[in-house]
Each structure stands twice: as structure tokens, then as C-alpha cells.
Fold this protein.
Amino acid sequence: MMKKKLLLISIFCLVLLIGGNVQGSISSSDQVSKLSVARNDKTFIAGTVINPSIENETVTAVALQVFYYNPGIFIDEVGVVRGFSSISFTKNMFVMVWTPGPFEVFGYVLGFCQDFEIHE
């Protein structure tokens, strides 16, 4: 069972890497100001972050590589945030922020969140 989970996570990460090269990406050098991807909408996010902190149900972190997808009738917003860009989103019961290890420096996010924003 654990091998199946690890295989699924590995395939998902591979899809993120390939999809990140094909789809549009935002890096900290390309970005000028705050970009609100989905205000008050559900956005699917998955990826690796640095130093996630939670204050009043708002999570802020620095994205190493985070895939985001705002579902709709047609694809609204799809992309990858990478290059140490800051992100923030509202945490709810459908998103998981996981920080393994004793120092909680690196973390992983997975799930549907609200108010996803990309900062400079």
C-alpha cells in the first residue's frame, strides 16, 4: 500500500515538472507585483514550499515549485510558481500543509484552497 502511494506521488511530481515546462510559469524575476489568481474561488495547488506559516487561517510561504489550477467551465488559470516567489492562500479543510522534520523549514501543500495569491 505504501509503495502504491509513493508511486502515485512520484508520478504526480513528474507531471508537475513536465507540466511546469509546458505551461506558463511565474518566477520572481518575471513578476512585478501581487497577482491574485483566484479571489474567493477554489484553486487546486500542489507543490513544495519553504517556511510555511499559518496566521488566522492564512498560509504564507515561499514557493520552490507550486502547481496551481483554478477549475471552471474552461481552464481559468493554470501555471507553476517557482523561483522563490512568495505565495499566500486561505487554509480550509480541503488543503493540507505538511512540514516533515524537526525544523519545519520545507513543507508540502496539496488540495483546494481559497484566495490564492502570488506575491513578488
